[in-house]
Write a structure and sequence with these properties.
Layout lengths: L14 H21 L6 E5 L14 H11 L1 H6 E7 L2 H12 L12 E4 L4 H8 L6 E5 L9 H8 L5 E6 L1 H7 L6 H8 L1 H11 L4 H18 L4 E8 L5 E9 L2 H14 L11 E2 L19 H8 L4 E3 H8 L7 H13 L4 E3 L15 E3 L2
Length: about 375
């Protein structure tokens, strides 16, 4: 079975599952508000949709998306939705749940609920069509069906982005397992899998994780998706369980999702996001016995922008990709640098409201 495992994943809305759904729906809200102004039709495609509700009765992502479509005049006339699962019991349940939503008849494009495997045939279907601007959600219980080919196919066209589930625990175990080698090759490619296997043999657990995630990012970048944000989930005992990963070709989408993910996870002593969720710690500021990345930020900025004058907005846009920093981190550091006379700002600190620096403020680096 490629869909979620019956009797496990949807039995209870585990804390982490609710956080994951919140991230997906929050990004859909922001993404759709932008895209309805630019396209006659937009899409939301969920390839492992599940039954619509957890056993405890809480709505899962498909129903939350449909409720937003019903409530919005823009979405009700533009949103095209496809919900797939390999489990016919799940698709039957989901179809009934959707039909029972109040106002579902308002939608110009009624949801399509289909039962099917997620495989190369599905990827080929997307490769052969021009896709409307769409957000795809690929959330397998394990890793079967998740492939670079599928990700490439669903994001190849304008306005298309994807959020996918990366089961680090299962994939880490599968890297050196010849029985699942085809699935590992689908994720990383044949040559990269060979390199990762050779490197990971002698690495510590934390270094293995870093190597595997770096390989995933490299594979995505090679296929034309330069913006990746992985968000880590840990179990209560602290071990890494899985990631959800966001992939886009546009810096605006990257910036929006970065802020959303940052607000759902823990931060360090300097309020720099860790982009990870630890049970019962969302939004808390935690102390970690690790290097403080923000300490190096002033030097990084001076080196990156030596002799240049830029707005704060430009500084953020040109520097934040691939870093853990969000805009408020840059604002804090730039204010401190200005007060220490490491940079000059226009208007300067004395001319602005105390402790603030707006996007339009000009920053001159020595």
């Amino acid at each position: 079975m490629v869909g979620a495992v019956a009797g496990s994943f949807f039995d209870e809305p585990e804390e982490q599952s609710l956080v994951k759904a919140d991230i997906v729906v929050s990004y859909f809200d922001a993404w759709s508000r932008i895209m309805v102004k630019r396209a006659e039709r937009i899409g939301y495609f969920d390839f492992y949709a599940g039954p619509g509700r957890y056993a405890a009765g809480r709505r899962s992502t498909p129903l939350l998306i449909m409720e937003r479509a019903i409530a919005s005049n823009d979405l009700s006339s533009r949103l095209v939705t496809i919900f797939n699962d390999a489990n016919p019991d799940y698709t039957s349940s989901l179809e009934s749940e959707i039909k029972g939503l109040a106002g579902i008849e308002r939608l110009k494009y009624q949801p399509q609920v289909v039962t099917g495997e997620v495989n190369d045939d599905l990827a080929q279907q997307f490769e052969e069509i021009k896709t409307i601007p769409s957000l795809s959600f690929v959330d397998p219980w394990g890793y079967r069906g998740l492939s670079l080919r599928l990700i490439r196919a669903v994001i190849k066209d304008w306005g298309c982005e994807v959020i996918f589930f990366f089961n680090y625990n299962r994939i880490n175990m599968g890297i050196n397992n010849n029985l699942v080698e085809p699935h590992m090759q689908a994720l990383l490619g044949q040559q990269r899998l060979k390199e990762v296997r050779a490197d990971m043999a002698s690495l510590r657990p934390d270094a293995r994780e870093s190597r595997l995630m770096r390989a995933t990012g490299e594979a995505l970048e090679e296929m034309g998706a330069p913006y990746l944000i992985p968000f880590r989930f840990r179990r209560r005992e602290g071990r890494v369980s899985h990631y959800i990963c966001f992939v886009t070709k546009h810096p605006l989408g990257y910036s929006i999702m970065k802020e959303i993910m940052a607000s759902r996870g823990v931060v360090d002593d300097d309020a720099v996001p860790r982009f990870e969720y630890m049970p019962r710690t969302a939004g808390m500021q935690l102390a970690f016995d690790r290097p403080r990345p923000i300490v190096a930020l002033p030097q990084q900025l001076c080196a990156a922008f030596v002799g240049q004058t830029l707005t704060l907005k430009e500084v953020y846009a040109r520097h934040n990709v691939g870093t853990p920093f969000i805009k408020r981190n840059y604002k804090k550091v730039l204010i401190e640098m200005e007060r220490a006379r490491q940079i000059a700002c226009d208007p300067n600190y004395d001319s602005r409201k105390p402790g603030t620096i707006a996007d339009h403020v000009l920053v001159t680096f020595p």
